[in-house]
Structures are given as C-alpha cells and as structure tokens.
Description:
This protein is an alpha/beta fold. The protein has 12 helices and 8 strands. Strands 1-2-4-3-5-6-7-8 form an 8-stranded mixed beta sheet, with helices on both faces. Helix 3 links the parallel strand 5 and strand 6.
Amino acid sequence: MKIAQLADIHTHYDDRGPKDAPTLLFANSLGTDFRLWDRVIDRLPEGLRLIRYDKRGHGLTTAPEPPYFMGDLVQDAGRLLDHLGVRDVVVVGLSIGGMIAQGLAAERLDLIRAMVVSNTAAKIGTTAMWEERIGAVRDGGVEALADATMERWFGRKFRDHDPLTVGAFRNMMVRQPLQGYAGCAAAIGETDLYESTARLKLPTLGIAGSEDGSTPPDLVRETTELVAGSRFHLIRGSGHLPCVDNPDEYTEVLMGFLKDIGHI
C-alpha cells in the first residue's frame, strides 16, 4: 500500500514498472477506486510504468467534506505526479477521470505528453441534474443510485453473462464514502471545459461505449474532436466502463495509440 500526503489529503496510489519507463497515469470514474483498471493493467506489456490512484473522496484516499471543485481534483493529480517526479506522461481518464485529464493537460502541460479521454465529455449533464443526484445520495446513501448506475455502466450482454463482476462493481460503488461521492458529483456539475479543451494541442484518443448511458458516444466524440488531430474509437456493446466489460479491445486500442505517438 502506497500513501502520499499531498496538501490537504492523503492519496492512495499504485506505482508499478521501471521508474525510467514510459509512464501512464490512470484516473478512475465516479464511484470507483483504482481497481477499475485491473483488467487493462493485466493486459499491458512489461516495460511500462503504470500509476493509478484513488481520487479525492474515493477508495482509501482522504474524503474531505464536500463540495469539491474540478480544480481540486486536477491539482491532486498534478501533485501526485510531482511527488513521484514523473514527466512526459500519457494520462488515461474515464468519466470524471477524463475531465481530470482534460484539466491536467490544460493546466500542467509540462507533465503531460498525450491523453486518452474515455467515456467522458467537456461538460457532463447539468448542475441541476447533479444537485438532484447529490440530494438522493444524502437521503438514501450511494445505495439509492446503485441499480440504475449498473445499467449505465455495463452493456446488456455483459450484465447478463457476468453478474458476479457487475455485483462486485455495485459493491465498490456503494462502499465509496458518501461525502466523497457527493463532493465529486458537485465537481462534475460545476465543470465546463469546452473552451480550455478546444485550446489543447496534444495527441488525444477518445474512447466510447455504444451502450453508455452516462456519456453517450456522440458526446464523447464531440469532446474528442475539440482537440485538433484527435482520434476516436467506439467499442460496440460496451457501457460506461469498457475497460471492464471489453478490456481486450480497450487495451488493443490504447496500445495502438501509444505505439502511434511513439510512447512505446
């Protein structure tokens, strides 16, 4: 277990691979911890440095009282990279993690070589929608959102054929600290990255799932295309977490991108 004291929080992270190797930073989605990436990590070749972390309010990282702001989450990621002394990183972010990737590229381009924005957008939903979701969590706990969330997270075929994994991710979600879930939901609700993302000039890959009920493919494509020269890939049959329900294709697409930009 690795813990770093970074400003006002203690951040739980995983850092594996040679210290001088090409580096990837993985940022996970709302309601998950860094185990979200297990199936991709297991498929990546040796010779890469792979860094994962539990964002503010999730997993074993400190969960301060909400609200949180996207700037907090972006600074947390930047502080972790500074703490580890790494540069020239490809950041792979899913959902709110993809928003963190966009913000990190905009604010700390000294750290970032390229980004993968997976199942995300420059703006996700409306402030009112997220306030309603936060209210539901305060009234009924994260449990109140769990069943509907699983339908958005995973494609129908995967839900039918692998209920054990779906159940495990449901458990992961409901065990996140209430204040952490609400804090990050508030951060999503107040965030609009259209202008800053449209100014970015770095290699960018967008990934979407055809059955994603949280960030539909057209929304992901729209955000990806804000960055000139970007590329987009649709994983058919996947939901909001294609790194879980289709890790083979997800990893193949990620590896192809890393090879094309000369990161491996």
